[in-house]
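Changelog note: in this version the structure field was regenerated for every chain. One regenerated record is shown below for reference.
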Amino acid sequence: MAVHRRVLVLGGARSGKSRIALQLAESASPERTYIATAQAFDDEMRERIAQHRMERDASWQTIDSPLELCDALRDLTAPGKAVLVDCLTLWLSNIILADRNPEPETERLVRLIREARGPLILVSNEVGHGIVPSTPLGRSFRDAQGRLNQRVAEACDAVVFVAAGCPILLKPAPALQLRLE
């Protein structure tokens, strides 16, 4: 059985991706860190953050890192210690809203994923399945998220897509063979 040290967990909103990621991290190591990228700008987001915190027991260390994810990863990945990042979508949103260029941030993140010294689980939304956003900022974000997900998936050993709470392994996958007639 292959060991997957770096795993990307993708899915839509409320798909169950965070629950699956927690299970992966908990099975990887008794020593774990949760890197949260959310910012509580309103009551609804504060409630979501509180709910996520309640899903983790006292064995988890939590680090809030809405913008400086790369620094946190550099400092926290270690052999035998699982790190879970939830989520890359909010991190990217924070980067864009802070008027930072997401491309160099993505390059740095991908490099750190490849250099991770211990189990690393990353959660991200798959935003390209919905309707086309009506604003230039929305379309720009959707495109940047798609590029980020592709780059992170390339750097990871495994990619899991979660739909309706069901994990579907996308990578590694058997070679794609098409028969065209």
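Spot check on this record: Strands lie at 6-11, 32-36, 60-64, 82-86, 120-125, 158-163, 166-171. The first helix runs from residue 17 to 28.
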